[in-house]
Write a structure and sequence with these properties.
This protein is mostly helical. The protein is built from 5 helices and no strands. Helix 1 runs antiparallel to helix 2 and helix 3 packs antiparallel against helix 4. The chain is elongated and about 65 Å long. The chain starts with 7 loop residues before the first helix and ends in a 5-residue tail after the last helix.
Length: 99
């Protein structure tokens, strides 16, 4: 993966979680299906953790858009609210591609 990829750290964190789960399940005796589920769970947990900021940002932006769409705000107030919302977004959600 290219070092300039904005998601490189996310991919690496997810890959590490997967490898750890695979290594942990390889060491343990047990049902193959349980091992597979443990790896799937590790992937899901890592994915959820890495994209928590995106989900929070989307929720905030949806609330702001609902306020703007309600018609309560004039054009200037709506634009000001939109700017303030964008300014408050975490850096890792601003310009990073999702995939």
């Amino acid at each position: 993966m290219q070092n300039d990829n904005p998601n490189a750290e996310r991919y690496i964190a997810i890959a590490r979680a997967c490898l750890k789960a695979i290594n942990d399940t390889a060491k343990n005796s047990g049902d193959r299906e349980q091992k597979i589920q443990a790896v799937y769970q590790a992937i899901d947990s890592a994915f959820q953790a890495e994209f928590a900021d995106y989900r929070q940002s989307v929720a905030i932006m949806a609330t702001v858009l609902e306020r703007i769409a309600s018609g309560e705000l004039d054009g200037d107030k709506a634009a000001d609210l939109a700017r303030k919302t964008l300014d408050q977004q975490p850096d890792n959600t601003r310009k990073a591609m999702m995939h």
